[in-house]
Amino acid sequence: VQLVESGGGLVQAGGSLRLSCVASGPIFSPNSMGWFRQAPGKERELVAVSRGGGGGTAYAESVKGRFTISRDNAKNTLYLQMNSLKPEDTAMYYCAVIGFPYWGQGTQVTVSS
Fold first, then answer.
1. Cα–Cα distance between 35 and 45 in angstroms, integer?
2. Residue 4: which residues within 8 A CB-CB, separation 6 or more?
3. Cα–Cα distance between 82 and 61 in angstroms, integer?
4. From the CA atom positions of the chain, what is the Rg in Å?
5. What is the distance between the alpha carbons of residues 101 and 59, in angstroms, rounded to a whole number?
6. In a structure prediction context, what are the per-residue pLDDT tens digits for the chain, which is 113 residues long?
7. Dihedral angle sign, alpha carbons of residues 63, 68, 72, 77
8. 105 and 37 in contact (C-beta within 8 Å)?
C-alpha cells in the first residue's frame, strides 16, 4: 500500500489549500481514512477522519468549521479542504489508513501571518 499526499504549500493567514492523498492497493474503500499533522517539536495529531462505509466524518476541535474531509472511493483519493488557515495550522500533513501502519511521505503546509 502506498499513500501519496500533495497540495501543500505556503499561504497567508485566512487563505485556503486543498490537500489530496492517493492510495494504491485494495485498502481504501472499506476503511476509515484520516488526515494527521505534525508541527516541529510537537506530537502527531489527528485532524480529521472519514469513516469507511459511509460512516460520516469527525474533526479535531481546532479545525472544526474550517476544514472539510472528503473521499472519492472510485479514485482511491482522500481530500482535505482547509479554509481560514491560521499560522498554528503550519505542519506536515499526512494521510493514513486508520488502524493500519501505512503512512504517506507528507505534504508541508505553511501559513504566514
1. 9
2. 21, 22, 24, 104, 105
3. 14
4. 13
5. 21
6. 899 999 999 999 999 999 999 998 777 778 899 999 999 999 999 999 999 887 899 999 999 999 999 999 889 999 999 999 999 999 999 999 998 888 889 999 999 99
7. negative
8. no
